[in-house]
Amino acid sequence: MIAGNYIQQKSHANAAWLFCVWGPIAKHEDSGNPNDVWPALPQAAWGDTCATLQLWVQIVGKIRLALTPPINHCWNVTLYPTARGLTTMPMWHGRQSVQIDFDFLEHELVVETGEGGRWAFGLKPMSVAEFYRQVMAALDGLGVPVRIWPMPVEIADPVRFDRDQIHQSYDAEFAQRFWRVLLQCTRVFTVFRARFTGKVSPVHLFWGALDLACTRFSGRPAPEHPSMPGLADRVTRDAYSHEVSSCGFWPGAPGIEPFFYSYAYPEPAGYSKFLVSPVDASYNSGFGEFVLPYEAMRQSADPDVALLEFLQSTYDAAAECGKWDRAALEVGRLPGDLTSS
Asked: If we measure between CA atoms, which residue out of 83, 118, 85 comes closest to residue 101?
């Protein structure tokens, strides 16, 4: 879940060390430029599609919210990248299972049930209202009707899904690029996630802000989180009930290019001044978090290593400044190997 300052503003080591401590990231033969693994994703080229897709994903996410029991930190509502797109994973309508998938290879939305039912329609330029109508028709047609609160969240000037004729863009190429970025982020985030033995979230997509996130917990309770515009207090305070170091990827918004982020709650003294890597990473006081521009990462000599440096060094900032019990929480630490300790 992206840091709260994004909502308030309505807009958010080196390779040798990584190899010695964690071993190499598995590499496979790629057919083109390594940067093609991390495709360009300029907001100016797909901003309208991004805004429309966020609302489509919110509709599906709200269906997951309606069909799953609450799990701490709202982990029951998130979506997950797959080899073809995004999925809700199985949800339960009584005793009947149902799953919804965005397929960004065939550009379809697919609704399936455990009884063999299947309903699909093409992803193409269409209004949010039409997408909403088709999703609800699919659920009704498969015998798993669901009703949701039809108001978007975490965006400025929301319009009911069933009335939104404004957002209707779908650029198939950039929708696919976004999914490919999420998939690569999941790959690298999972390497980072595996280094922690304490409580840690899955790598999952929060549909409110359309950000992919992974969160580590110190194990200690946190002070009550202040209210945040756009989110109910019960949601915010459940999300931040315990101390966290959270990282993620956000695709940006008009005037803001995509970036990786990392923040701590509560933010400990000295956190914002902590030296992090790579050189393109910095603390953004407006967002209240460290950021690494996506384009800077993808243009680096080794994007995977650059991203892992960012994830590790910003976690180091939270753990060191917050005095986490690192020996009890981390995997395979070697004394003296942390460049920031």
From this structure: 85
